[in-house]
Amino acid sequence: MRRIVIVGYPEVELLDVACVADTFDTANRHGANPQYSIEFATLGAQPASSGSGLVLAGQHALERITGPLDTIVVSGGLGHERAADDPVLVAHVRRLARESRRVSSVCSGASGWPQPACSTAAAAHALVPVCDVLDA
């Protein structure tokens, strides 16, 4: 089983969470081998409001997740700058990135991690310099 952790925070983009989760779920339904386990994690397993006002239940407490992970995905959203300024959230993302085979982000999920002025790819590389960053 390949473990996927999608990171959420207040004002996360619902589309960024749903598209990632549904992509891996579709792979599972089409016979992915090994299958993917999809988890949505927030600090304290707290609900994450989306920019549209819908609220996503935090399945898992980010601080309690341990690796190894296949992939950690940082979602984008209106709250991405506040999320990037949260030292506890950033510390857990960095910790889990070191325990993951792949690190990815959706849209603004990488901006501001850790420098808001840099490009998304550069921010992702600064967060986890041992990873190759694909800037498409």
Q: In terms of topology, how is this protein built?
A:
Layout: E1 2-7, H1 14-29, E2 36-42, E3 48-49, E4 55-56, E5 60-61, E6 69-74, H2 80-84, H3 87-98, E7 100-105, H4 120-127
Parallel strand pairs: 1-2, 1-6, 2-5, 6-7
Antiparallel strand pairs: 3-4
Can you characterise this structure?
- With 136 residues, the protein is an alpha/beta fold.
- The chain has a single domain (2-127), classed as Class I glutamine amidotransferase (GATase) domain (Rossmann fold).
- The protein has four helices and seven strands.
- The protein has helices at 14-29, 80-84, 87-98, 120-127; strands spanning 2-7, 36-42, 48-49, 55-56, 60-61, 69-74, 100-105.
- It has a five-stranded parallel sheet. It has a two-stranded antiparallel sheet with strand order 3-4.
- A hairpin with a 5-residue loop joins β3 (48-49) and β4.
- The chain is globular.
- 35% of the residues are buried.
- Mean pLDDT is 86; it is low at 113-119.
**CATH arch. level architecture:** 3-Layer(aba) Sandwich
Q: What class would the helix/strand composition place it in?
A: alpha/beta
Count of discrete alpha- or pi-helical segments spanning 4 or more residues? 4
Spatial separation of the terminal alpha carbons: 28 Å
The shape is globular
Instruction: Tell me the CATH superfamily.
Output: Class I glutamine amidotransferase (GATase) domain
Count of DSSP E strands?
7
Report mean pLDDT, rounded to a whole number. 86
What topology, given as strand order, has the largest sheet?
A: 5-2-1-6-7
Query: Strand portion, in percent?
Result: 15-25%
Biggest β-sheet description: 5 strands, parallel
Uncertain stretches of 5 or more adjacent residues: 113-119
CATH topology grouping? Rossmann fold
Amount of helix: 25-40%
CATH class: Alpha Beta
Rg from alpha-carbon coordinates:
14 Å
Number of domains: 1
